[in-house]
Fold this protein.
Amino acid sequence: MRPTIDVLMPVYNHVAWCGAALRSILNQTVDDLRVLAVDDGSTDGSLDALQEAAGGDRRVTVLRRPHAGIVGALNAGLAESNAEFVARMDSDDISLPARLERELALLSSDRRLGAVDCRVTLAQTSVTGDGMRTYVDWLNSLGEWAQIRAALFQESPLAHPAVLMRSEALNAAGGYLDVSGPEDYSLWLRMVEKGFGLAKVPETLFEWRDLPERLTRTSPRYSPEQWIGLKVRHLPTIHPRASGPLQLWGAGPSGRRFLRAALSAGLDVQRVFDIDPKRIGSTLHGLPILVLDRLLVNLDCLTLVALGTRTAKAQVRTWAAAHALTEWEDYLFVS
């Protein structure tokens, strides 16, 4: 029979964790599910651990393949999927029992939503730094689609292993692609391009383990350049004003990186603004760096804000509110 939810769980050398991860899915309050556990060529006994944790449960299908990476493993699972909804699960994390029930209720409530996740707790290890902790706090601060849309070009607004997706949206977006850049962030951008929204269950229902071998630490596809590359490629097709003239707030390191990529991608950035008097009056990649108040003269342009710290972003919002500027409509954070 066709299950309501297929859960994709790629596994690679996580013998210490994968059994508990699988059991946490089998213990969900939603019973109408199937787990497609893809052993991606593990060499540490993960396959045996999966089969032991499954314990003969007929809802579990274990697939084995030569090691080829997460995109290949996810697509191997998708090739076996026929459910209306597709969930993700990583082999070192824990889903609390009500996770899929709550996510399914939210996703089913609005046909315009393509994917949802939930708030997460961070299971920290010796490698966990302030950056990851700050990211999880930011991730958990997001909620409804309008808020996530405004945050879409900062960082990935969904925790990939905690996601439940509508198969229709996943297929419309082209599924998982082995392209330059993070495979999950690429997917969210493509879903949004196809007209689907994203949202978050306002409950903490997932334990996200931060291990040293996380791909964001070890794979070149997660480098800053790859992130920026995805942003500048998709920005003109997602934001209704981004295909026209643009201006950039920020001539520091984040602004320089973004501007270089934006100009290379053909975006029509016409001027740059900054508050540092040492930068004002000079140029950046051939564009003039102007005093911030001049930004208000050119409100026909969408302003892209490329600043690196949460404090600076909070200051931008305060300044923008004082000048009746609205996030997303008038300005957009891109870093």
Observations:
- The mean pLDDT is 94.
- The chain has twelve helices and 14 strands.
